[in-house]
Amino acid sequence: MKTLRVGIASYDEMKARTLAIAQGKHRPAADEPKVWFTSAESFARVLSDRNRAVLQMIADRAPGSLAQLAELTGRQKSNLSRTLKTMERYGFVKLERGPRGSVIPKVPYQRISLVLPVSRSAQKLPAA
Q1: Which range of residues forms the domain containing residue 50?
Q2: Please, are residues 102 and 110 in contact by the beta-carbon 8 Å criterion?
């Protein structure tokens, strides 16, 4: 089962991690998150119950276009488009070009796993 691991870290922590990787001081482990949010609240906004229902609809029904997804979900196409573009930035969906300029949403993962350490020592990030 393909799982996307998501982590929570402050902007400074993410910056320090990126610099450490670029300088060769940190090599990300296979089990480290690939996507980062600055807060649990921002993660929850992007993956709200309503947005998770959209992901499930895409995974279960494989709509052939954004228009078809809007029909299935009862959401406005423009609103859905904004939501999907946000989720695409985090890798939760892929938006592929279809025939005649249509947009075909795909879900590349079966699971999204949130890694939420409760202490700095458990975080696996270089100090900010």
Answers
A1: 3-122
A2: no
